[in-house]
Recover the amino acids of this structure.
């Protein structure tokens, strides 16, 4: 195991190590000389490099063949979605995907076209990928998020001519700023102002700043002066961490921070043509010679160095690894590893080591260290050794939670598979945890490594709709772009592979197909979409409105149906529109509802088209009530009569005719007698006439409208009672035999509080109603008499219940006696 | 406030809490002080979810009712519109926004659509040029509202009219969505049964939505064993009949909206302080919340009204006895215990007083008045001492129902038993002649038509003509609506199948026991609601036994199974009851709810029911929703 520390270099308290990740497989004639290289952080990048290389060559090819129509490229950079940004001299930014296919472009402003871009930087922030440029006029322009492009031109920097000596983009307090150095002067440039600043503890009089670097987290800043001094401090320029004299006075080619979370010391990696230097808090430095042109890439937990033939990772050795592997370390982890080694050799020393750990009761800690250290190691063999030791240690522990061990094994399996040179994503465990599985899956998907992505999802048991389904969707989106394959076979392939996978959005795939101009394929794919609601907007976009309508109806979402209907209404001529609706009853009835509230006239047209005479009749009836003028009202009612006749609704036609007759009659009376009858119902009209003593007219209406006798008698009776016209009532009662009997006479009189009149009619009441009649006028004796006479138990009880036990004692007794005899029968 | 929701077989408070959480989240989205502009229709249903205090906690300072013109002044940062997605409301909102004073400190506008946002409405706002003025446009998915411990309602008044008259299935879509929400919280319901066109439509949508949500399935052990979807139009008869349970009668007489009944104040006057009787009689109607949170109400709500008197007096005795306990309390410990029970006893006493008043009010309407006893009854009420007088009063009045109420009931029962349903009914004729309320007439005529499977053309025309002549020609449209929904119809050549249905399903029970019921028919004193019989038969012995009758009722009947995720199959304990959710599409009456509760409590029933509906209805509110009145100029 000794060799593990072979590439360790001490710097102050900490060690640094440089691990070779890959041998580069690209064949560049001149190495990286004269090349613009861009690499993105989170390991993804290096692999990027491989492709990147392809792309670079691709770009070079384009460049060489002079098919490169626009100006020269100033800067390359990667977006968070693994797209390549090419910033050209004229401020145009071109976006390519991982495979070199052009996606889109945007411009950094008109001003740039004249002044040219001098320098540009691509940066990442919580808002996404941003681009910053400085123009020939020494002005800075920023775009914080290229997906939501908002250009911000920063204020002028006093005294700046041409490009600044060096500059960097900072994100602080949710604001993106530019930090720049113009020889000895340092400025912070934000949206509104340009503020001169001085880093604490750096004497600037004597020297100018030639390079600067901002840490991955935007928390730290490093400045390099032409006197060879390196100043390190916080990015807010409040604290100084250290200052180191590198004794090299040439301006470095590149300078990047090399930190890791929970780092023991901050350090910066500085690169010259042939020299790589690591400087930290102490005065010592580590120096590496470089034998080829290289590029440094800052990472969350180290620096990657990409050269023409090699790709390496430089990082501070994590403390867990230090504890275990440092020579002569007595840390619990180191002892456990040793114990396991002896155990494998079947040596009793294993027990001695174990005993030692257990005596200090640090076995748990030892296991934890081994597991953690395994995560930091790149060599699968070393990982295995550490994990085996951990698992060995676990055997002697009870209640040690298994999760950390298990999840580390899983993570490592995933990491090793993506580190594989064919995939080429040299992620560290720290980076992996920071960027999450989701993002890793995305990255694999961008690289079209679908099978691996699916394997990982399955292995990690990611919920289907977040994992496998998502990958499959991307695969399908890619598949539909294969121009050479026919629609049929693509649709088939997609449906076979995606099958019933949960949560697949076929509409998204279809939308992609449509974007590529494959409408037919899109329609075929939409057929697989289980959510009808999702199908509708795309179908409308593709002008398949009929299909959209039936899908909307299928979904049951009436709002969606309305949306399509409104769309159709604007798209089609009226005739076609109505015909379409006619074939879709659900849509038609919804549209009718809409018209009922919003467009009355259209409603009529709809009924007309359908020959729905009944509804047309109703429509006219409703309309008639809106008319103030009687003539207009009558003519609408006449239309209603016609429609009802067409609908063979005799009753409605006749009733409407009668209403017209009534209206005319009411108008005549209103004119002649000054009554206000118009609009009253027949019953109300009669009542009004009777109470106003227009008996003749009432009589006429009664005959004309064939009012049933019963109702007319009731009507007249109540009208007379209300007027207290008792004389007329008596006459009326005697005019002929009452069709409603005489109980109503009694009741109506009682209602008008005229018991005297009521009594007159009690005798005329039929025997069945006698009891009721007597009770109505409060004649208990009479009621009792009648009830007993009829020997009806029920009636006797009714009377009984009305008797008060105190006042009607005699009656009570009599009734009770009668009831018992009635009951006997 | 909501504890009563969690006592039932299924804890419906989970649903309420989910709804409250969502509301809070939305309110917090609009940072700063706020004013809510209410679509008036929504305030009732919202009251069942959250009180003003919740809104206040989230900086709601003012509330307005949505109306045209300019918004009232309010010094708040946010104006939030709580609205249903209706075009006419969008126009009002647009008017509000446009007339907002631009010079004044700007206020942020938000819209919360209930229950669902609508593209159509947003389009309208866009046309009006105000869509851009809204910071947040959101939806508040409020489909099923917990109404009581075993009752969910969508509080959607127009559902029946929309579905059966206007073929607008929007409310069915909301129903399906609501059931999906329910399943997300209470697990997938493994079995779905249904009867009727709308039921079929809802089930189809549910199955489709389940496919759509595939993959995001919740791993919850199913709480419900089955779902029964019932169309209202398979049982048009039940809501037409007068409900005879206590709660049903309160609804018939005073109406219960969103769980509240407004009662005439007179009877409640004496309660507050005994000394001040008659001093200041309240004139505002008394608003009472009626739900199972009130112990006494939960006990008596579902009893037949004729059993209420006994129940109340029994309760009165118990309470009196409890108060008498104080004389027996000798030791400090006993006194302490007595005092600790006082609040509960006092609550019980005031609850008893309230319900005695309500019972008396209803009796005034259903029975003949007798001022003497009413008086002595009142004395009893205030002092709660001599409850036997009250008993006496009830004994007397029990038999003597008021004539009008009694006659009406007699005719209803004649129709339900199939007596003379093919002739013009003299009682209806007389009622028309005396111009009784139109809705009463319509209820009776419709009932006759339903019980006769349609009326002879001549009879139908006669009734219609009588109605038009008496109440006015404008009711032509209403009559047309009733015919369209099948409530009124001319008899076609097919024979009247109502008697067959009645006999097979035992819809009429001669010997209904109102005091100690042994069958659901007690809720209508003899008539067993068809809808509930179907539910009962489904549980045992199953619908296969009544295929013939099912065919006579409109719409298909069906059974669907929903696949459960592995491991979620419920293992039923021996003797454990099944839980069935019965969903009434188009409304349910309180009497039907009572009948289902009765079935749940049956010892050998084997099934417990949770009830859901689009709206709680009664014959009057139902017919009213179907009426069309042309607007006068």
């Amino acid at each position: 195991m000794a060799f593990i520390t072979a590439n360790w270099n001490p710097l102050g308290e900490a060690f640094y190590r440089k691990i070779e990740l890959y041998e580069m497989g690209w064949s560049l004639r001149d190495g990286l000389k004269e090349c613009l290289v861009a690499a993105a952080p989170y390991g993804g990048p290096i692999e990027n490099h491989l492709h990147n290389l392809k792309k670079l060559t691709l770009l070079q090819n384009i460049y060489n063949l002079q098919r490169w129509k626009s100006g020269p490229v100033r800067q390359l950079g990667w977006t968070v979605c693994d797209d390549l940004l090419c910033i050209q001299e004229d401020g145009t930014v071109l976006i390519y995907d991982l495979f070199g296919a052009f996606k889109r472009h945007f411009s950094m402003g008109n001003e740039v076209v004249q002044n040219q871009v001098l320098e540009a930087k691509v940066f990442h922030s919580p808002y996404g990928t941003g681009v910053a440029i400085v123009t020939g006029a020494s002005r800075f322009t920023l775009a914080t998020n290229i997906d939501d492009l908002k250009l911000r031109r920063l204020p002028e920097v006093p005294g700046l001519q041409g490009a600044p000596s060096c500059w960097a983009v900072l994100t602080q307090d949710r604001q993106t700023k530019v930090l720049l150095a113009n020889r000895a002067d340092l400025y912070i440039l934000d949206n509104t102002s340009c503020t001169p600043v001085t880093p604490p503890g750096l004497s600037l009089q004597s020297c100018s700043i030639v390079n600067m670097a901002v840490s991955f987290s935007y928390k730290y800043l490093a400045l390099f002066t032409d006197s060879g001094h390196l100043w390190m401090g916080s990015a807010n320029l409040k604290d100084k961490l250290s200052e180191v004299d590198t004794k090299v006075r040439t301006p470095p080619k590149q300078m990047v921070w090399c930190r890791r979370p929970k780092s023991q010391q901050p350090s910066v990696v500085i690169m010259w043509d042939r020299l790589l230097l690591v400087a930290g808090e102490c005065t010592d430095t580590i120096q590496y010679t470089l034998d080829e042109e290289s590029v440094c890439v800052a990472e969350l937990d180290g620096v990657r160095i990409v050269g023409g033939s090699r790709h390496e990772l430089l990082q501070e050795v994590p403390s867990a690894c230090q504890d275990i592997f440092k020579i002569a370390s007595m840390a619990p982890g180191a002892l456990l590893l040793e114990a396991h080694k002896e155990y494998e050799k079947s040596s009793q020393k294993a027990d001695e080591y174990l005993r030692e750990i257990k005596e200090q009761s640090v076995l748990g800690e030892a296991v934890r260290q081994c597991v953690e250290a395994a995560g930091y190691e790149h060599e699968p063999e070393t990982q295995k050794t550490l994990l085996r030791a951990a698992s060995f240690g676990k055997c002697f522990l009870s209640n040690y939670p298994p999760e950390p061990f298990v999840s580390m094994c899983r993570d490592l399996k995933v990491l090793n598979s993506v580190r594989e040179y064919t995939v080429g994503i040299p992620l560290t465990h720290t980076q992996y945890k920071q960027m999450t599985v989701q993002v890793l899956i995305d990255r694999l998907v961008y690289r079209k490594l679908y099978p691996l992505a699916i394997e990982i999802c399955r292995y990690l048991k990611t919920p289907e709709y977040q994992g496998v389904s998502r990958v499959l969707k991307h695969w399908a989106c890619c598949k539909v772009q294969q121009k050479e394959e026919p629609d049929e076979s693509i649709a088939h392939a997609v449906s076979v592979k995606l099958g019933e996978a949960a949560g697949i959005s076929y509409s998204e795939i279809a939308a992609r197909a449509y974007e590529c101009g494959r409408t037919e394929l899109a329609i075929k794919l939409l057929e697989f979409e289980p959510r009808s609601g999702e199908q509708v907007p795309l179908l409308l976009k593709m002008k398949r409105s009929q299909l959209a309508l039936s899908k909307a109806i299928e979904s049951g979402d009436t709002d969606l149906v309305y949306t399509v209907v409104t769309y159709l209404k604007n798209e089609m001529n009226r005739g076609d529109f109505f015909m379409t609706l006619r074939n879709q009853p659900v849509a038609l009835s919804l549209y009718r509802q809409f018209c009922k509230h919003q467009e009355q006239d259209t409603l009529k047209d709809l009924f007309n088209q359908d020959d729905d005479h009944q509804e047309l009749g109703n429509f006219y009836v409703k309309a008639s009530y809106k008319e103030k003028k009687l003539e207009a009202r009558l003519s609408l009612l006449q239309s209603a009569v016609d429609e009802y006749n067409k609908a063979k609704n005799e009753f409605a036609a006749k009733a409407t005719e009668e209403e017209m007759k009534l209206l005319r009659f009411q108008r005549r009376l209103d004119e002649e007698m000054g009554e206000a009858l118009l609009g009253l119902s027949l019953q109300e009209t009669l009542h009004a006439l009777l109470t106003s003593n227009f008996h003749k007219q009432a009589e006429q209406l009664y005959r004309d409208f064939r009012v049933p006798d019963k109702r007319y008698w009731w009507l007249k009776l109540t009208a007379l009672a209300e007027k207290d016209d008792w004389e007329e009532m008596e006459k009326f009662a005697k005019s002929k035999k009452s069709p409603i009997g005489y109980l109503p006479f009694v009741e109506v009189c009682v209602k008008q509080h005229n018991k005297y009149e009521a009594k007159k009619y009690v005798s005329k009441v039929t025997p069945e109603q006698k009891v009721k009649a007597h009770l109505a006028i409060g004649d208990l004796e009479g009621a009792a008499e009648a009830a007993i006479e009829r020997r009806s138990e029920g009636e006797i009880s009714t009377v009984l219940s009305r008797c008060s036990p105190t006042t009607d004692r005699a009656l009570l007794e009599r009734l009770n006696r009668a009831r018992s005899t009635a009951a006997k029968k | 406030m909501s504890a009563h929701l969690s006592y039932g077989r299924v804890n419906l408070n989970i649903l309420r809490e989910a709804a409250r959480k969502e509301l809070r989240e939305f309110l917090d989205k609009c940072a700063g002080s706020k004013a809510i502009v209410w679509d008036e229709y929504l305030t009732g249903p919202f009251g069942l979810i959250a009180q003003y205090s919740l809104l206040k906690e989230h900086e709601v300072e003012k509330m307005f009712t949505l109306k045209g013109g300019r918004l009232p002044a309010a010094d708040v940062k946010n104006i939030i519109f709580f609205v249903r997605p209706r075009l006419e409301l969008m126009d009002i909102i647009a008017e509000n926004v446009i007339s907002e004073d631009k010079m004044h400190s700007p206020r942020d506008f938000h819209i919360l659509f209930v229950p669902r946002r609508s593209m159509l409405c947003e389009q309208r706002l866009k046309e009006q040029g105000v869509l851009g003025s809204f910071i947040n446009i959101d939806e508040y998915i409020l489909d099923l509202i917990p109404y009581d411990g075993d009752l969910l309602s969508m509080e959607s008044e127009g559902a029946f009219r929309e579905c059966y008259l206007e073929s607008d299935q929007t409310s069915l879509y909301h129903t399906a969505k609501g059931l999906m929400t329910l399943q997300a919280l209470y697990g997938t319901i493994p079995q779905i049964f249904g009867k009727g066109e709308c039921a079929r439509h809802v089930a189809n949508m549910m199955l489709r939505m389940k496919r759509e949500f595939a993959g995001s399935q919740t791993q919850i052990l199913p709480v419900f064993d089955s779902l029964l979807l019932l169309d209202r139009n398979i049982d048009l008869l039940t809501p037409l009949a007068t409900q005879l349970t206590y709660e049903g009668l309160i609804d018939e007489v005073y109406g219960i909206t969103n769980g509240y009944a407004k009662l005439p104040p007179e009877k409640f006057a004496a309660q507050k302080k005994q000394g001040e009787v008659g001093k200041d009689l309240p004139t505002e109607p008394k608003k009472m919340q009626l739900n199972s949170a009130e112990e006494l109400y939960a006990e008596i709500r579902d009893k037949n009204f004729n059993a209420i008197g006994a129940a109340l007096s029994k309760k009165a005795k118990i309470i009196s006895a409890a108060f008498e306990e104080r004389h027996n309390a000798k030791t400090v410990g006993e006194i302490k215990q007595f005092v600790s029970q006082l609040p509960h006893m006092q609550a019980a006493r005031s609850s008893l007083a309230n319900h005695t008043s309500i019972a008396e009010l209803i009796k005034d309407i259903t029975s003949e008045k007798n001022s003497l006893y009413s008086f002595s009854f009142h004395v009893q009420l205030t002092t709660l001492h001599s409850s036997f007088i009250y008993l006496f009063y009830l004994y007397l009045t029990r038999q003597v129902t008021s004539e009008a109420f009694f006659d009406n009931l007699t005719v209803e029962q004649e129709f339900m038993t199939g007596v003379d349903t093919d002739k013009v009914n003299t009682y209806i004729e007389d009622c028309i002649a005396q111009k009784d309320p139109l809705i009463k007439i319509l209820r009776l005529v419709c009932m006759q038509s339903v019980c006769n499977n349609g009326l002879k053309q001549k009879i139908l025309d006669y009734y219609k003509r009588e109605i038009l002549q008496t109440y006015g020609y404008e009711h032509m449209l209403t009559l047309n609506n009733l015919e369209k929904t099948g409530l009124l119809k001319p008899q076609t050549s097919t024979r009247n199948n109502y008697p067959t249905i009645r006999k097979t399903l035992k819809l009429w029970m001669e010997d209904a026991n109102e005091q100690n019921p042994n069958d659901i028919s007690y809720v209508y004193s003899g008539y067993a609601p068809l809808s509930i019989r179907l539910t009962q038969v489904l549980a045992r012995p199953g619908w296969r036994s009544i295929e013939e009758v099912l065919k006579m009722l409109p719409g298909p009947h069906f059974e669907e199974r929903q696949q459960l995720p592995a491991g979620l199959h419920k293992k039923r304990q021996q003797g454990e009851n099944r839980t069935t959710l019965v969903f009434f599409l188009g409304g349910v009456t309180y009497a039907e709810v009572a009948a289902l509760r009765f079935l749940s409590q049956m010892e050998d029933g084997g099934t417990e029911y949770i009830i859901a509906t689009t709206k709680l209805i009664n014959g009057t509110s139902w017919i009213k929703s179907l009426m069309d009145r042309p607007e006068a100029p």
In short: The CA atoms of residues 151 and 171 of chain A lie 16 Å apart. Chain A touches chain B through 65 residues (CB under 8 Å).
